[in-house]
Amino acid sequence: MPPIKAVRGVRDILPTETGRWQRVEAVARRVFETYGYREIRLPLFERTELFARGMGGETDVVKKEMYTFDDRSGESLTLRPEATASVLRAYIEHGFHVEPKPVRLYTLGPMFRYERPQAGRYRQFHQANVEALGETHPALDAEVIAMLIDFFGALGLADRLGLHINSIGDSGTRPAYIARLVEYLTPLRDRLCGECQGRLVNNPLRVLDCKAPGCQPVIEKAPSILDALSPGAARHFDSVRECLDALGITYTVDPRLVRGLDYYVRTTFEVLTRELGAQNAVAGGGRYDGLIQQLEGPPDPGIGFAIGMERVVLLLGEAEKVAAPFAFLIPLGGRSLQRLLPIARVLRQAGLAVEVAYGDRKLPRELERASRLGVRFAAIVGDTELQNDQAILRDMTSREQQPIALDRLALELLAKAREAVTEDTR
Ligand code: HAM
């Protein structure tokens, strides 16, 4: 008998990869928490009805991709294909709506969809999911998007990704647009792929984001949803864009960005890459005002997104730049090591990444190591410095050196680190 293997589309995350995973998760937590989001941990399975009602019965996910089973009491349960419906269920169940709005929640963890596995697409995958509930102001949409971009920025990925945004209008005005779209598409039906011919009947908006080459000429000439927005939705979208512009966030307005789930209204957005073939969406989200009420909750609006963690980890790749220590402390014999060790400890306790040499190599070799590590500052303590209770502080970029009292070294490095952060964010 051959040994049992993992289920198709389900992967082990091996120790060679977990470092990257931990880093991505830590960055997600740090960025989300600085924006005021709190973690919520949710069950991996829910009543099937929650997803059917939450995501929409006509979506691919609900129709074809759910892991649904009856438990021993005959109740239909489903492994969660996304987190939004579960977050909203918890929001309603625990009465979060009485808290100051918006209520900001995030959750990290595995999701399950029965999709055809390929690179970047799995049957068990992980999302970092964020929801801001109870506020309609367009500035919140921009803030949520800014947070998503900051997450990618903190991982050094921002330059390799593109932000696409759209407004798909209100649920009240969308039917008129869909009718126009169907009117446009119906005579061209034979030029659409088989899947789109089905969508034309069941979910016409999804024709717009079909990737099949044959459908592109038809889609390109389709009426734009942006021309069909209600005045309120158009104002909302303009305002989101103004806020994004004020934040200096660049984006592409993409009227074909309709997303695959039924609950979206107004703002939708995706972060796309060209580096992962067909699986080009690294994150996606949007506004879903009305959904909480649809789940028998209060009439609170909401907006959120989910990041596909596997895809982020894939983008980081093997060649991920390891964050360089900020400072490298170089003792040169005598008791200089013992003087520098507690200083390194204090700096690490204060959150600064620091390395200490052991004092058994010559200065040029240690300096070479410091520049290979990419550190910003080296602090050197030889016999003369030790006698004077001093260190030489060397800026590794400009190569400028200055003496500094040893009992001021930690404070000076912390101040330099703070300056560097300010410069980097400018
Ligand atoms: P979604 O677009 O279905 O949205 O998924 C978000 C992201 O999860 C995708 O952009 C992709 O990176 C990743 N993803 C989805 N399916 C797979 C898969 N089979 N394998 C690997 N990665 C995958 C949602 O799930 C919404 N709940 C997002 C949201 C939150 N909207 C509002 N709040």
Give a short overview.
It contains 15 helices and 16 strands.
What does this structure look like?
The chain is 38% helix and 20% strand. The protein has helices at 15-34, 48-55, 60-64, 84-93, 138-154, 174-185, 194-202, 216-220, 231-246, 291-294, 309-316, 336-349, 363-373, 383-387, 406-425; strands at 38-39, 45-47, 67-70, 76-79, 103-112, 124-133, 162-167, 252-253, 265-272, 281-287, 302-308, 327-331, 354-356, 377-381, 390-395, 401-405. The strands form three sheets. The chain has an eight-stranded mixed beta sheet. A hairpin with an 8-residue loop joins strand 9 and strand 10. The protein is elongated, with a radius of gyration of 26 Å. The model has no long low-confidence stretch (mean pLDDT 93). Residues 82, 84, 113, 115, 121-122, 125, 127, 129, 131, 260-261, 281-286, 304-306, 308, 310-311 line the site of histidyl-adenosine monophosphate (HAM). Residues 82, 84, 113, 115, 121-122, 125, 127, 129, 131, 260-261, 281-286, 304-306, 308, 310-311 line the site of histidyl-adenosine monophosphate.
Q: What fraction, in percent, of the residue positions are helical? A: 25-40%
Report how far the terminal alpha carbons are from each other: 61 Å
Which spans of ≥5 residues are poorly predicted at pLDDT below 50?
A: none
List the strand order in the largest sheet. 1-5-6-11-10-9-7-8
Shape: elongated
